[in-house]
Amino acid sequence: MRTLAIxxxxxxxxxxxxLRPGLSxxxxxxxxxxxxxxxxxxxxxxxxxxxxxVVSAGESAREIAEAQGARIxxxxxxxHNAAASLGVKAALETxxxxxxxxxxxxxxxxxxxxxxxxxxxxxxxxxxxxxxRHGTGTNALLLRPPDAIEPAFGPGSCxxxxxxxxxxxxxxxxxxxxxxxxxxxxxxDLEALEGLAAADTAARTxxxxxxxxQRC
Length: 216
Prior knowledge:
single chain, alpha/beta, Spore Coat Polysaccharide Biosynthesis Protein SpsA, Chain A, seven-stranded mixed beta sheet, 40% helix
């Protein structure tokens, strides 16, 4: 089954505004870049993924992705959902049977856990929603076919994605994936990451955080 990963990424200078009180623009940029690189590395190690599409208005993100063999799509910084939809459209054009949408700020992503998610029997059509650690947001969305529902990320998106699937008459399931539980938006998320990341995940992010700790 042809499976594409879609990774929408905000331009690094505009990323992680909610960390503004504690981190300078340069450090927020560095953190966003490190997390993106970690997620991209995990996707490349996920056996069930056939190709990775990175959708970003940021030149730096596109250069990193291209160097790692990902396919690049340029968006107009219209938001995460617009970028995700652009990736879904491209996946449909390639004949992909399903897509998994993953954000660029879940650096602890474990390839084995993602392979486990992709190995679950489902559909078609079917929607699998991976919630954040609070159980309200969506940190990954598996769609079979790619246009099963329209991506609707943001606050409350876990319930929203379930409702969209129900309205479309499509089966849906919420599946917790520990390494996808934490997306980094707040200082509390950074603290939670320290206890979650396995030894071989989030390498660049943990290196950056260790450097920051030494400065303090």
